[in-house]
Design brief:
Blueprint (H helix, E strand, L loop, with lengths): L3 H8 E7 L1 H4 L9 E6 L15 E3 L5 E5 H9 L3 H7 L3 E5 L1 H9 L7 H15 L7 H23 L10 H8 L5 H21 L8 H14 L2
Length: 223
């Protein structure tokens, strides 16, 4: 069995930077958060011990998914995974990674409304009455997700780089915005996302067959 970290170092097909640096919200102390996709050799699936669906590391702040798992999450409109496909900072992309990125428009559906807003609402549910620095950070990301969801439904792509909203979002991050103002902005963004959903051109379902064709092609290549 191939060691998990070796799957990342030797078999990564796509590696991107996410987090504040991709969002246009970084400062001098911001970490480099990296996400990637690896394609385990086909022969590694033949025994009882299967390759892991994901690997944490080997570098700090790096997390990777095996291709099949990544495609499944993308088809389910997972916000974290979909944002990887549109990250403006791509550090590694081989021919399989290029095919994966070329397929991204067929992996999306109107389900992004449910998943993006659901994740944003879950962030609100976790907030405490006595807001901590962590709470304000979660609040900022809740608003960022709502901005991205509205853009996704209107254009067919998530808005990963939110530098146009940097000052407003960082003011929330630093606890400088009254909670009532945050709630009004949240309600406005949610209403805008709902309006965008009613007019969206996104399909009702993603193209699962296209994703499966890519997966089968990669398994054949990696024999």
């Amino acid at each position: 069995m191939i060691p998990p970290h070796q799957l990342v170092t030797d078999h990564t097909v796509l590696s991107v930077v996410v987090g504040s640096r991709a969002y246009g919200l970084a400062d001098s102390d911001s970490d480099f958060d990296r996400r990637g996709v690896y394609a385990a050799p086909t022969s590694s699936w033949w025994g009882f011990d299967k390759p892991p669906t994901h690997v944490d590391g080997p570098d700090p702040e790096r997390f990777s998914w095996e291709l099949e798992r990544f495609l499944g999450l993308a088809l389910a409109a997972n916000p974290t995974v979909l944002e990887c496909l549109w990250s403006p900072i791509v550090e590694h992309c081989d021919t399989i990674g290029e095919e994966l990125r070329a397929l991204r428009g067929r992996l999306v559906s109107r389900e992004v409304y449910r998943t993006f807003l659901g994740y944003a609402n879950s962030q609100v549910d976790r907030l405490s009455t006595a807001m901590t620095a962590r709470d304000w950070k979660q609040t900022m990301h809740m608003l960022r997700l709502l901005i991205s969801a509205r853009h996704f439904l209107a254009t067919g792509e998530p808005l990963v780089n939110v530098a146009a909203y940097r000052d407003k979002l960082l003011a929330v991050r630093h606890g400088e915005v009254p909670w009532a103002t945050v709630q009004r902005w949240r309600d406005e963004l949610a209403a805008a996302a709902e309006a965008a959903r009613s007019a969206t051109r996104l399909p009702a379902r993603p193209d699962r067959a296209a994703a499966e064709r890519l997966l089968i092609e990669v398994r054949r290549i990696r024999l």
